[in-house]
Amino acid sequence: MKLYFHTAPNPMKVALMLEELGLSYDVVGVDTRKGEQHTEDFKALNPNAKVPVLEDDGAVVFDSGAIVLWLAQKHGRFLPTGDHAMAECLSWYFFLTTGVSPFSGQAVHFTRVHKDSEYATRRYTREIARHYRVLDDRLATSPFIGGAEYGICDINAWAWVRMAGFVMEADGGLANYPNVQAWFDKVDARPAAARARDLQAAHTFKTENDEAAMRAMFPQNF
Ligand SMILES: N[C@@H](CCC(=O)N[C@@H](CS)C(=O)NCC(=O)O)C(=O)O
Predict the structure, then answer these.
(1) Nearest-atom index, ligand 1, CA of 6
(2) By three-state DSSP, how is residue 20 classified?
(3) pLDDT tens digits, 74-126
(4) pLDDT tens digits for range 5-59
(5) 100 lines ligand 1 (CB under 6 A)
(6) Where along the chain do the CATH 3.40.30.10 domains lie?
(7) Ligand 1 binding pocket includes 19 (Cβ within 6 Å)
(8) Within its chain, how far is the Cα of 152 from the centroid?
């Protein structure tokens, strides 16, 4: 198995899943600020030119949400049993995949990268705060995000929630979301989370948001 990786949150979801499953895999670093996601070889794997991508026994899976779900189904792990429990789990899974993840990314973009749109900053910081309120309310009544047991929703959410202090810095990070904080402490204490953090620490990528990085990550803006 080959994981095309960067230390950013979406690839980190997959790192946690692979570590939870105890699978062995090779890591291929893709330095997105250097434009390595735009090579023809990489785009043959993911036409959307983003990490993560997983090559698994001849199958190629891209998009972090798809990869975590693919692995869960393939190995029969971290999914609930029963139709109703699955309906509940998938609802929360896609709330995370299409809500918390991309809105966190946009909040970072408009508070850190492109700071001169007051409307966009307000739109995304308030929208991510609203998503965290939904999550906090959920965790007031459910031990894990998807339901009674730890599973794909928690694995999906961990990678962005650990960045909440950065994503929502001006609003105090997780300070207003005690249920999310308590849930995070529980998930982050898992041995697999420690191994995923070790993997992150072992890889270094370009960090400067210089013009070359902006052109690599946001080519449509030029
Ligand atoms: N929906 C995709 C988003 C992937 C994504 O945005 N990846 C970022 C790193 S977290 C990336 O590759 N950025 C480089 C770029 O956009 O050019 C997923 O969840 O995998």
Answers:
(1) 9
(2) helix
(3) 999 999 999 999 999 999 999 999 999 999 999 999 999 998 999 999 999 99
(4) 999 999 999 999 999 999 999 999 999 999 999 999 999 999 999 999 999 999 9
(5) no
(6) 2-77+196-221
(7) no
(8) 12
Please check whether residue 54 is in contact with residue 44, taking contact to mean a CB–CB distance below 8 angstroms.
Answer: no
Instruction: Please give the pLDDT value at position 163.
Output: 98
Residues 145, 153: contact at Cβ < 8 Å?
A: yes
| Start and end residues for every CATH 1.20.1050.10 domain found in the chain | 83-189
ω before 9 within 30° of 0 (cis)? no
User: What CATH code is assigned to 83-189?
Assistant: 1.20.1050.10
State the CATH class of domain 2-77+196-221: alpha beta
The rounded distance, in Å, linking the Cα atoms of 3 and 200 is: 13
